[in-house]
Amino acid sequence: MSRRLTFEVFRYNPEDPDAVPHTDTFEIDETPYMSLYIALNRLREEQDPGLQFDFACRSAICGSCGMMVNGRPALACRTLTAELPDTIKLYPLPVFRLIGDLSVDTGTWFRQMAERTEAWVHQRLAFDPEAQEARMSDETSQKIYESDRCIECGCCVASCGVANINSDFLGAAGLNRMARFMLDPRDDRDNSDWFEVIATDEGVFGCIGMMACEDMCPKELPLLEVHAYLRRRMLATGLSKQDAD
Ligand code: FES
Fold first, then answer.
1. Is the pTM here over 0.85, yes or no?
2. Which of 34, 53, 55, 58 could form a disulfide with 65 if both were Cys (CB 3.0 to 4.6 A apart)?
């Protein structure tokens, strides 16, 4: 016999001056292999066409469907209701600007992070249309690929105690992005350049080691390993700067 699921869903439209944040309760019958994405679509189709939430790929690739599920950040498309109790509480991810109900604006946060950290390959050479393609070892490309698996869903940022109280903190996603370019041999920035960007309280030294980012990452990225790599490199740069002074 299928379970009857109860959904308590956060509702609020920040554009409506009369709106008051509250939760609405819905009930539906669980079906085999039901994901939260399927459940939310059914709620919207059958009970409340105004319910706002995001999705695009439905397969843990686009990073759109992050939300708080019974207090933990998760992707709705990848979370099966079978893994959850009869009552499921859904809230929007904190840290990001609320668009409405369960929909948040992660795009602006990630764009601002990328602009602040100049998250693109920097080359000091003038553009040469005849240049040969730069080669790199398999080992290096694998490391870069590992960092590039981030889908920018925001689950690590939402779970981070520091990011929740310091809106300037780069968070695990931002630091992972930096590590990606530090590993890239095509990027000409040196340790001093990186030091200016991430050896701060808003960067790698702002982390207080709660480790929720790695626990909550739906792509299981090795965020603590990335963090340790950045800290080691920035610490060594800081010490060599001190010696030089
Ligand atoms: S819908 Fe794309 S990650 Fe969930």
1. yes
2. 55
Q: How far apart are CA 240 and CA 245, in angstroms?
A: 9
Q: Say which amino acid occupies 235.
A: L
Residue 97 CB neighbour total at 10 angstroms:
12
229 Cα: distance to centroid of ligand 1 (angstroms): 29
For 77, 116, 205, the CA distances from 110, given in Å and listed in that order, are 21, 10, 20
SS3 of residue 63 by DSSP: coil
d(CA 79, CA 60) in angstroms, rounded, equals 10
Quick: pLDDT tens for 73-114: 999 999 999 999 999 999 999 999 999 999 999 999 999 999
pLDDT digits (tens, 9 = 90+) for 136-185: 999 999 999 999 999 999 999 999 999 999 999 999 999 999 999 999 99
CB 77 near ligand 1, within 6 Å: yes
Tens of pLDDT, residues 125-139: 887 888 887 789 999
CA 58 to ligand 1: nearest atom: 1
Which residue is it, tokens 């390959």? 121
Residue 106 CB less than 6 A away from ligand 1: no
Domains of the chain: 4-103 (3.10.20.30), 118-244 (1.10.1060.10)
